[in-house]
Design brief:
Distance between the termini: 81 Å
Largest sheet: 4 strands, antiparallel
Shape: globular
Strand content: 15-25%
Number of helices: 9
Order of helices and strands: HHHEHEEHEHEHEEHEH
Helix content: 25-40%
Length: 263
């Protein structure tokens, strides 16, 4: 009985604390709701309509170059810029920052990306690719990328990937290759079990397909051309130096000369 009584007291205390933390929902005009539907994704919409406290990395798509055209506006709004590429920026946003941004004519879309700390899991080229694709409106096109788990993956990890809208292409220990629209990346970033994300092209062992233009030459024509124009013998070549030579420095070796000496 004593344990049950203590449990009831704890439950009542948590209920009272939850009531104190309850935040009144904002009164949104029809214009506010329309701009929310037009410019914000579903998670941003919940943050605003439910008046939830939130500090997160948001991906904002502008109508013009983010660095050239929006730096001053973001500085005046005291919003921290975490990364920029083209017309897209990853910003550290708090709930009160969102309504003014939505009303900015230069803002096209605001997407919830992840908690700020989760950004360190994104390989820089992959992060830039995410910004580029969202900036071009291609977030719904399938992309192949690699993920690495912190621990040996379990069946629940496969379920998470599927629920986020991705298909598993290959599994090699803790490294998997997955394919799907980048719109589902925020769902994956919620899991702390995935420790790293990178472009598939930068991972060894991951097959990346590429379209090859059709050749108009027949096999016999190719053999005849190669017999008249033999392919150069492969070998290492030292790249010509483009540095300004200082006094006392010798000129760079010719392009066809290999220089493997350590200086």
């Amino acid at each position: 009985m004593t344990r049950r009584f203590a449990f009831a007291i704890l439950a009542a205390f948590l209920l009272i604390a939850a009531c104190k933390e309850d935040r009144p929902r904002p009164v949104l005009s029809s214009a506010d709701r329309e701009i929310l539907r037009a410019k914000a994704d579903d998670k941003i919409g919940v943050i605003i309509t439910e008046n939830l406290p939130a500090l997160f990395a948001g991906l904002v798509v502008f109508r013009s170059d983010a660095f050239l055209s929006q730096s001053h506006m973001l500085d005046q709004a005291n919003i921290s810029v975490l990364n920029m590429f083209g017309n897209t920026a990853i910003l550290l946003l708090n709930s009160p920052d969102i309504p003014p941004l939505l009303k900015e004519p230069s803002v096209k879309k605001i997407h919830y990306l992840c908690r700020q700390g989760a950004l360190v899991r994104l390989d820089t080229p992959f992060e830039i690719d995410i910004m580029r694709r969202f900036g071009e409106g291609k977030e719904d096109e399938p992309v192949t990328f690699a993920i690495r788990f912190r621990d040996p993956p379990e069946e629940k990890d496969a379920s998470l990937i599927t629920a986020a809208g991705f298909t598993i292409r290959s599994r090699e220990g803790i490294a998997w290759a997955v394919t799907g629209p980048l719109r589902g990346i925020p769902r994956l970033l919620e899991s702390d079990r995935i420790g790293f994300y990178s472009s598939a092209s930068s991972q060894t062992g991951v097959t990346v397909t590429k379209e090859v233009p059709s050749a108009k030459e027949t096999i016999d024509q190719i053999k005849d051309r190669e017999s008249k124009e033999p392919t150069p013998t492969p070998g290492d070549r030292a790249a010509p130096s483009h540095k300004i030579r200082r006094d006392g420095q010798s000129p760079a070796p010719p392009g066809g000369t290999t220089d493997n000496s350590v200086k």
